[in-house]
Design goal:
Arc Repressor Mutant, subunit A, seven-stranded parallel β-sheet, alpha/beta, six-stranded parallel β-sheet, 11% strand
């Protein structure tokens, strides 16, 4: 059938396209010939067409197994647009009523339906199996097939049952498709679906139009995102967050700042989710904020940016999510905010899962961290992860290539790493190899007697992060390989063995240091202020007011508040209240002179104030603060208040800091008298009276080991409340 069929004419007739993309035609011919087919094609490469066109050309109904309700709806709508017959495509999933399912079944029986989308959970239902056994099935398509593998980024146990159910319904050719699969995941898919002999079509995973950048995640992340969106006003974008709570909160912050944004996550009811998805597709909103865990399945070609508010759990997830940008070949900006703290959060989420699953999850997280921290071309790292070699030295479209770091010779270091891998018989992971090189006295090293090796401790002249960079870049260069199935054990390749005999030049770039960068905005001294001259004037005014009231300057306004004033130029009490750490109380008490100074400075220097960049907080945050203040007025224990508001104690102290720094007076004496002795309290209070800074680190250094950080923070809250508010 496939040989004499003019597929290009059929493509034009059914979909209006003049030519196929990439491997599409070869894939379709293979399926039409009745062969099992395995398709690895990046997002935007045209996977759906590989089963949509054959379904229209073959006798019977094609069954598409897909995990995403949103994607089913999206694709069914698209297929109906291409056809005169509404019944040409249907879906069955948990969102349909019984009468809707009866309509679907009658369209299938009458031969109208060429394409039936079904969720794996619905496929296992006995009445659906029974019905499908009576239907002529043209072929089965397993979309998002990486869900089969525990090493895939969206593992779904129900995907493991697809093959037995297909056997029960009746055999037909099988096509499995995924937009992302490492060699390990590819093998898992083929083995589980019983299609080891399938013809494999693998497209390049390189998306040259996508720009990749990783930024340090600082306290100002919301502000950075707002600036970014306003710079790309009117363009469509997706922001991924880790939790549903973050999704809701960030969407509210964006809306409060005049951005058309909506949330989207699995916890919303399906009608709200559909409405929000449609609003994004119809472009009545510009931005969708979504959870990483929820695959959106939005087939929108002109998404111009994808922002990761949190680092994803795996590089596969990252690749697929960033792949939603620029599917039309146009601009696609992929910005990720990274801090090591997010990785620790993700590791915490894994606790309680089976150990093997935790170990897999940890390995996937380490790969993501390596990608974020690496200063090597991001394309090179990504494509290497998917088993593809990228030979260009500079892609010209990622942050690392546009701002390349200086390379240093690492021939000796690579030799030492390879020697160590060899000395421990190629049985250990990266961390262990580096621990041996650094001479760490761990029980595992001592148990294996590896502290007796010649290489033990011979790399102490370099930092751990440098050794990490050597290992990561040696893997990309092909001197080492990671055995993924074996949780990342390092092995020497043939090239690595050759290098040991005849070392050649090997240059590396040091990894990006995100922890250092993370601290930068917190440093005082006006470095983060956009207008250092104004910052200096505000600082002098603060000192003058502090001296008049006989208070340390930080009690009036803290450094970050001054930096913000010297960036956004508030000139009224109302605007000043929007500055983090100011609030209504302080704005009224001290604000008049600051506003007058800023206004004068703007007029004298013809400064146009960037009001757009003033980040307004969402009202919800103040609700929680109000609840905390009311609980303190009722003299509830702070431990109980933290528990009731779903905060750990340190987070509650953050909230209290924010409350008193904004000018609200609270009295926590009842709690302090209960948990602290009087001498400690007096000593800490006296320290803050004399100190030039409210830094907890400085206070801990000065006060010594007799005091806990918790005590110091509590007394600082009391001090600022009593003296500044």
């Amino acid at each position: 059938m496939a040989d004499n069929l003019d597929l290009t004419a059929e493509l034009k007739k059914h979909f209006g396209f003049d030519k196929f993309k990439g491997n599409q035609e070869a894939i379709i011919r293979n399926l039409l010939e009745g062969n099992d087919t395995f398709v690895l094609m990046p997002t935007g490469g045209g996977k759906s067409l590989c089963y949509q066109l054959p379904s229209l050309l073959m006798e019977g109904t094609a069954i598409v197994i897909s995990p995403l309700i949103a994607l089913m709806k999206n694709q069914v709508d698209a297929m109906r647009n291409f056809s005169e017959e509404d019944g040409v495509a249907h879906f069955i999933n948990s969102s349909l009523s019984k009468s809707a399912i009866d309509t679907v079944k009658s369209d299938i029986v009458s031969g109208k339906t060429k394409l039936l989308y079904i969720a794996p959970e619905s496929l296992t239902k006995e009445d659906n199996i029974e019905f499908l056994r009576s239907v002529k099935i043209s072929f089965y398509a397993v979309d998002e097939s990486h869900c089969i593998s525990e090493w895939g980024h969206d593992f779904r146990p129900e995907y493991r049952n697809i093959r037995p159910i297909i056997n029960e319904i009746g055999r037909a050719p099988l096509i499995a498709l995924t937009a992302t699969a490492t060699p390990k995941v590819q093998h898992d898919i083929q083995k589980n679906l019983g299609m080891m002999d399938a013809k494999v079509f693998k497209s390049s995973f390189n998306r040259p139009n996508l720009y990749y950048e990783v930024r340090p995640k600082t306290a100002n992340v919301d502000k950075e995102i707002i600036k970014f969106i306003k710079k790309h006003e009117g363009k469509s974008g997706i922001i991924y967050c880790l939790s549903r709570k973050e999704v809701e909160e960030l969407a509210e912050v964006l809306v409060a700042n005049g951005i058309k944004a909506l949330p989207y996550h699995a916890g919303m009811d399906s009608a709200a989710r559909s409405a929000n998805q449609d609003a994004f597709i119809m472009e009545t909103v510009d931005v969708i904020v979504a959870t990483i865990a929820f695959g959106m399945g939005i087939d929108k070609p002109d998404v111009r940016y994808v922002i990761h508010y949190d680092i994803p759990k795996s590089l596969e997830g990252y690749y697929q999510e960033t792949g939603r940008a620029g599917r039309d070949g146009g601009e696609g900006l992929c910005i990720t905010f990274y801090t090591n703290k997010d990785l620790q959060k993700l590791e915490k989420f894994m606790q309680g899962k089976p150990l093997a699953e935790q170990e897999i999850g940890k390995q996937l997280l380490l790969e993501t961290a390596a990608y974020a921290e690496s200063s090597v071309c991001r394309r090179k790292v990504l494509l290497h992860y998917f088993g593809e070699e990228y030979t260009e030295t500079n892609c010209g479209n990622c942050d690392n290539c546009l701002n390349p770091k200086k390379q240093v010779e690492a021939k000796e270091m690579l030799s030492l790493v390879l020697e160590t891998v060899k000395a421990v018989k190629e049985k250990f992971k990266t961390e262990y190899i580096i621990d041996v090189i650094l001479g760490k006295e761990t029980s595992e090293i001592q148990d294996h007697l590896h502290d007796d090796l010649e290489v033990y401790g011979s790399g102490v002249d370099q930092e751990e992060k440098t050794w990490n960079a050597v290992v990561r870049q040696a893997v990309i260069a092909g001197y080492l390989e990671k055995e993924v199935e074996n949780y990342g054990v390092l092995k020497l390749t043939e090239a690595g063995k050759k290098f040991l005999k005849h070392p050649v030049s090997f240059k590396i770039t040091e990894d990006n240091d995100f922890e250092e960068m993370e601290e930068a905005p917190e440093k005082s001294g006006g470095a983060s202020a956009a207008d250092p001259v104004l910052y200096s004037m505000l600082n002098d005014l603060r000192k003058k007011i502090a001296a008049k009231h006989n208070l340390p300057p930080y009690v009036i306004f803290q450094d970050p508040s001054l930096e913000e004033m010297a960036t956004t130029y508030p000139i009224s009490i109302e605007e000043l209240q929007n500055i983090p750490g100011v609030g209504a109380g302080k704005a009224k008490r001290y604000g008049k002179e600051f506003c007058e100074l800023i206004k004068r400075h703007c007029e004298e220097n013809d400064i146009i104030r960037p009001e757009d960049f003033r980040v307004k907080t969402k009202p919800d945050k103040s609700k929680k603060k109000l609840a905390i203040i009311q609980s303190i007025d009722r003299r509830q224990s702070l431990y109980d208040i933290a528990k009731f508001n779903d905060l750990d104690f340190s987070e509650l102290l953050d909230q209290l800091d924010s409350i008193v720094n904004s000018g609200t007076k609270i009295n926590i004496d009842y709690f302090l008298n209960e948990v602290m002795d009087d001498y400690h309290l007096e000593d800490i209070y006296e320290y803050f009276k004399e100190s030039e800074t409210d830094s907890i680190d400085e206070a801990m250094k000065e006060l010594g080991d007799d005091f806990t950080e918790e005590e110091v923070r509590l007394v600082r809250i009391k001090f600022i409340s009593e003296n500044g508010n």
